[in-house]
Specification:
Elements (H helix, E strand, L loop, with lengths): L7 H8 L3 E6 L1 H8 L5 H5 L9 E4 L5 E4 L5 E4 L7 H14 L16 E4 L4 E4 L3 H13 L9 H12 L12 E9 L5 H17 L14 E9 L5 H15 L4 E6 L17 H4 L16 E2 L5 H4 L6 H6 L26 E2 L2 H13 L8 H53 L24 H14 L3 H17 L3 H17 L9 H14 L3 H17 L3 H10 L6 H16 L6 H17 L3 H15 L5 H17 L3 H13 L6 H21 L12 E2 L5 E4 L10 E3 L11 H18 L14 E2 L10 E3 L4 E8 L6 E16 L7 E3 L8 E3 L2 E6 L4 E10 L3 E15 L21 E11 L11 H5 L12 E3 L5 E6 L4 E3 L2 E11 L5 E7 L6 E2 L12 H5 L6 E3 L9 E5 L14 E3 L6 E2 L4 E9 L5 E13 L8 E13 L2 E9 L11 E10 L7 E13 L2 E6 L9 E2 L4 E10 L7 E7 L3 E3 L6 H22 L10 H10 E16 L2 E15 L4 E2 L8 H4 L1 H10 ...
Helix pairs in contact: 4-6, 13-14, 14-15, 15-16, 16-17, 17-18, 18-19, 19-20, 20-21, 21-22, 22-23, 23-24, 23-25, 24-25
Amino acid sequence: MAQCVQSVQEFIQDSFVPLVAALCSEEAERLTRKNNLGFSELVKPFCRLTSEVHMRDPNNQLHVIKNLKIAVNNIITHSPQPGGIRKLLNDVVSVSQPAEGLVTNVITAGDYDLNISDRSVKASVPWYNNWKDTLMELNTSTFYSATTPWFESYRESFLQSMPASDHEFLNHYVACMLVVSSGEPEPVEQFLKLSQEQHRIQHSSEYAYPKWFIPNTLKYYVLLHDVSAGEEQRADSVYEEMKQRYGTQGCYLLKINSRGSNRGADEQIPDPWSQYLQKNSIQNQESYDDGPYTVISNKNADHLISDGLDNDIQDGLSNNFKAHPLQLDHLSDTSSSFDGTDYIKTTSSLHESKKTSSGTPHGACLTLTDHDRIRQFIQEFTFRGLLPHIEKTIRQLNDQLISRKGLSRSLFSATKKWFSGSKVPEKSINELKNTSGLLYPPEAPELQIRKMADLCFLVQHYELAYSCYHTAKKDFLNDQAMLYAAGALEMAAVSAFLQPGAPRPYPAHYMDTAIQTYRDICKNMVLAERCVLLSAEILKSQSKYSDAAALLIRLTSEDSDLRSALLLEQAAHCFINMKSPMVRKFAFHMILAGHRYSKAGQKKHALRCYCQAMQVYKGKGWSLAEDHINFTIGRQSFTLRQLDNAVSAFRHILINDSKQPAAQQGTFLREYLYVYKNVTQLSPDGPLPQLPLPYINNSATRVFFGHDRRPAEGEKQAATHISLDQEYDCESSHQWKELEEQVVAVVNKGIIPSNFQPTQYCLNSYSDNSKFPLAVVEEPVTVEVAFRNPLKVPLLLTDLSLLWKFQSKDFSAKHNGATKELACGNDMIGAEVIAEFLINSEETKMARLKLFPHQTGELHVLGVVYNLGTIQGTMMLDGIDPSIGLQAGKLVYNGMSVRGRQDLEIQGPRLNNTKEEKTSIKYGPDRRLDPIITEEMPLLEVFFINFPTGLLCGEIRKAYVEFVNVSKCPLTALKVVSKHPEFFTFGGNTAVLTPLSPSASENCSAYKTVVTDSTSVCTALMSSASSVNFGLGTGSQPEVIHVPLPDSVLLPGASIQLPMWLHGPDEEGVHEINFLFYYESIKKHSKMCHRVLRHTAVICTSRSLNVRATVCRSNALEDEGKGDNMLVFVDVENINTSEAGVKEFHIVQVSSNSKHWKLQKAVNLSEDKDYKLASRERGKLCFKAVRCKNSGENYTFADIVFGNEQIISSASPCADFFFRSLSSELKRTHAQSNMFQGAAKQSFDEAVRLIQKCSEVDLNIVVLWKAYVVEDNKQLILEGQHHVVLHTVGKEAFSFPQKQGFKKILGNSDWEDLEQESSEMVLLKFFRPENTSLPTRPTPEQLSNLIKTSLHYPESFNHSFHQKSLCLVPVTLLLSNCSEADVDVIIDLRHKTTSPEALEIHGSFTWLGQTQYKLQLKSQEVYSLQLKACFVRTGVYNLGTHRVFAKLADQVTLFETSQQNSMPALIIISNI
């Protein structure tokens, strides 16, 4: 139990005190009423004696009485009504509340306060051990006191209001005061009248109430004298007459009202009556009329019960207060809410009664002297009147009992002992009959024993009282008078406990038997409750908290909710006061107590109990219990109009991950909405409240600047750009940033401006949000908010829009930002409102909300504002399809919604750069919700027409691109940048000038073609072009391509279509190709300089042709001496797997592009002009290439046509793709050379470079083809081209990048097969990069290409050796200088062959004339040297025995080496 102010001994002594009746004349009552007090109320504060009292017991032993208290009450002749008693007790509990500020109604998370009563106990998680230690410490502390004053007030009022009973005499009147005023005409006669009235009340049969202790009641005559108004002499004379008539022991003169009613305002006289008068006295019978109170029975409970709520509130709140405290579902039957023992009293009338009782001053005419006189009067009455009367009565009763027992009881007792032994066998309660109806006559000896025991008990003679009670108990049990026996058992137990020195232990089993008898046999719950209150207090004083709790819980029943609530609360305090505190039992029983308080109409106490229990349950994972407690706290707070607490409690239910079923969650939500609605109605003009639902994932908020992407229209495909539907890709975002930096650098002449800020159209948690984003006026700002519904019921958000703040600024002003403070309105920012937004149960759903800025300035998105509500049918959610009713505009409200807001607060990234940031937790800014609205900018839309999704490798396809300016500003400087410029072209400068040939347009060819003459099949057709015409100047970046707009400007609303040729990538697979379109406004802006548009094209390429080519020098030198020539071998293989339905490929043309070389003719072409390759076929082509005249920077194009149409390779698109592939190839090789350029010596000899250039060849081969495809039973013709870049003589080049590994060994087609069969097999290759520094000495292969030699001689020579023994054959040696410098040449004709095999095979011959020649050849010079060979016999001879040495003319001989012949020169000498 809770700690009490009194000790248990004081409590019991004050509970059972001698009762004194007071009978006043009207005049005497008028005198006391001057002080707003009745006579009994006047003396009440002075009824406790301040000194010890002595009396003698029947054995003439002196007995000391300490701290005696008496009770003086007005005589009331009819017993109080049970309804009035219940009302009194209920009012007493209602009035007594804990002090404000000591109990927190809504407990917050984290550390929590256990407000047991008026002391806060701090405890933390982990809770059990801490609870245990903390509570143990508090329990043993002298400062610890958890008091429950409402329980003590209830207990005191309950004991005082108990009606008098015939089976006991504790609350029977012992004496009667007759009070008469001295101002009456005949005071003595008035005393006689009052005495007769008292006698009539006591002895007349018409008055059954009140009860009197003995027939000869002590009458004490009190003369009341008004000092301020009465005559003191008359009063004294009357008093003298009274003393003569009644004796000095039986009368008293009490002088009061020493001051007049006009009391000085400056004097402060204490008011000891207020604490007693606040409690309604049970003796004031007038207050128990049935006026403003209604006692309710079960019959009309349905109609009258309002559960403390107004009628309109009752509609909104489902009434499940009467349910089991942990049962959250609604009860179908609420008629059992109240029974016949409960009542209702309005709160307002209770407050009025409190005001009247506390606001009126008491004792206004009394001085401190009067107080002392009243105190002295009570002492005189007790010492001289009451106690002597009691002592005398005890003696008389004792004498009567001794005499009567000796006569009448002795024979019965002896007979009983003779038959059954000395001890009477005790019977169990169940065996005893219900003899509670047995009544003893007043003179029965058993009652006299009980009367004596009660008198002894009242004067604290507990030993004699116990003896008498024990004797009476035996007699009552023998007679099976169970009501009397239970009373004797009860008081015997109390007397045993109160005996000084504790001669015997407290007989708790006496109390248990008494309680069971009262409750089960006598059906008297009032007496049972008194037993429990007494016994529990005694057990508590002995620290038997467990027994006390069990006893308190045992008496809880359905007949009285108030009693059950109080006892359950005390049981809870017992659990927490145990040696090992049982905190969870405390909390559980506080819940039960709160439930019963609620049923009893004690809403404040119910709320307090639930709040105290909540501290234990919170945060322990008991979510269902926590939900129930919060729900009840919310309801009780709402009933008490503590709306903020109610909202907070309901909020806790909704924001935690609830495990409740859907129906219960729906109930919680509706309750919350109803309470919230009431809160908002109190302050309709206040700020919007924060709503707890739905959850918002702040970090997932995304912001998009610009219009939504247009859908595709037929063949038109809009640029993909960027949208909220796309997932964020970090790598892709980095690529876009690089592309933008690239084009910005080109525009700004190679330098990226310092204030450059990459364009970000979509901001999310991965993007860089440290800077203020830029938005354009009149273009929407879309904010995507991630809502999550944690409940199992759908949430309906209506009128959903963004909450924003805007500061207008004019960025075009000279000072760059003149601020204008304007009121926010729709003329500045237009906000989109979503009428209905439904979030299904446990669904995460994105809401996209738009703002339309109409002015420049700074915009701040603060949060979202919406109406939170539910839809009808939520009670049947388990059985309905969640998709029902989801169509916009068809949702049905259930009439309950509240308007509120949620803020968007995004935490920036954690800073981790400086030491201070690393050692502390700091977060950077996240400004994605704070865009700057800039001036109007042009807006470009791009559409792709007939854009393919699949191509063959190398295929050329023509499409169209449409550029549309949808803004009100003209745009200019349109450029496109891509990492794959070889994929597309808009055509060169010559594309518009030359119209397409009729045949090209007829066949829908992408190329520009010319019909050729059939005679020119084998020879090349020449043309030339410059790379400048195709946008590839020497200094520009090939990735940045200028879009050829007419006049370079696109006006507002204008659109233009441009052709766009596409070239399939050389590698098969899926390719993502990014286009970034860059454009500017004609008017320069301070904030935004340019805009970009993104497009990602996805192309799937399949295999077509594989082209390999090699070049080698031709040994034959032309007679005309035109200079050098080479042979080009082209190997074409069809590696298509017929996936795309390709039947065969036709090689229609082979072209060359070079500044120095050109193809002259085909060498090995068959007579069939058609050069076709079926699947897996390979063909070889050989071409003769000759050096062309130097044409500066122009490229020479040579076309060798295998059909009737020549594709002009120097025009778009053939030349475009050639130049683009050439630039990407050069870029690739340049990047490779840059890797080791640092290791190269910058000052290597120029001679080495000249020698190396002799073996280099700058020749590019373009193979143009057609493929025939069958698709949907139609034959289509596809066109394409492959490029091979030949760098070095003798080195094979490929049309596509080579993979490392087996490919070099297996060849391309075999490698492709191997890849298909086992794509998992990867050759693990460890390598170390070689030292690739440029050599200081040329290689032999490079030196061998310095001079080209050729022998001209007859293949066979006939000679008659018979006629002439020596055969002389003329031989011409042609020497060609392949370098661009002068070369010194030495020809050595001496035989140096050392191997005998060579002599045997080729024989021996002799050169005639000089054996060594020294020559100097100019750059590109061809020199002819006439030689003679001498043979002596027939045979086959190798003329290639000469050795050629060469060196640069201005160099030393360090680099001189022999020129190697590529093949033997055989001659046949025949004899004729």
